[in-house]
Every structure is written in structure tokens, then in C-alpha cells.
Amino acid sequence: MRTTTRWAPFGLVAVALIAAACGSSSTTPQSPGSSSAAGASAAASASASSSGTALKTATIGGVTVLTSAKGFTLYSFAPDTATTSNCNGACATYWPPVKGPATAGSGVTGTLTTIKRSDGSMQAAYDGHPLYTYAADTAPGQAKGNGLNLSGGVWHEVTASGGAAPAKSPSSGSGGGGY
Questions:
Q1: pTM above the 0.85 mark?
Q2: Helix 2-23 / helix 39-48 crossing angle, nearest 10 deg
Q3: What is the distance in angstroms between the CA of the first residue and the CA of the last residue of the chain?
Q4: 3-class secondary structure, 124
């Protein structure tokens, strides 16, 4: 009984963090000054606060990519279509959808549209690619999600031209990898 009591606060913290991650997908934009209790939620909040603000471009790893207004890399998910997001539920806690509508800022020359997600919320899309941030990108200018095969498909940075950025190699060699 003593062990259960000692671990109970940790369980409550875990539930609160999960609820905070799920809450970040609401359609109500957060104010730029809002904070969250978890690092992953901070990235989700950064994408949520980009709703209704200009998206821009930045050069990350030698590639000009689309970013949120706060400089967080935007991604596309290979299984998505121009009208449907295939990242829902737990997937969307790690890959928070960019709330729509969004407007084109500096360097953004493609077409911005919105799609309606399965939960009824609106998601921004760029040249037919629904847009997401990645919870593991905890600061502007990071692109930790590019080339990852997670949640049923491959994730790519969205380039300013609207295409997928090439996946970065884990090493500079041309070997078979052994993964």
C-alpha cells in the first residue's frame, strides 16, 4: 500500500501531461505568451499559436523549408492526401497539426489551403500537403522529424517549393546501413 501511495503522484502527472498534449489540438488559438508543463507540449503550443499567423521559410540543414511563425519546422506525412490527414489520435500528439487557416509570410510562394480533420478542426495545408510540427523539435531551427518512419508512414520537411525535403542520412558513408 505504501508503494501505491508513493507512485500515485507520478501517475497523476502522466495523466496531466497526456491531457495537455491532447488539449493542444483544440481549435482555439493560444496566446504567444502561454506556457505549458511539458517540453513536448511546448512544441505543440508553438504550432497551435501559429494559427492565423504567417508561415515563413528558413534554411535548415542546407534546405529552405517551411516553418511556423515561431521558426518550427513544418512536416508532411506520406500517407496523407490533399484533402485527408491520416495522423489522428496518438499520432497527432507527437505530430501536432498546424491549425488553419494560415497566411503566407516571407518566402512562402505556394498555395495555402485548409482541410477538415476527422475531429472537425481545420488544418493548414501547403501545395496539397497537410502541415504538422514535431513534438521532439523543442526549439526553432530543428528538424529531428525529417525522414522518420513513424505512425504508419514517412515524415518529411516541407520545402519552400512545396515538395518533401530529402531524408538526411545518419552518416556520410554510402554503406547499406545495417538497421
A1: no
A2: 20
A3: 44
A4: strand
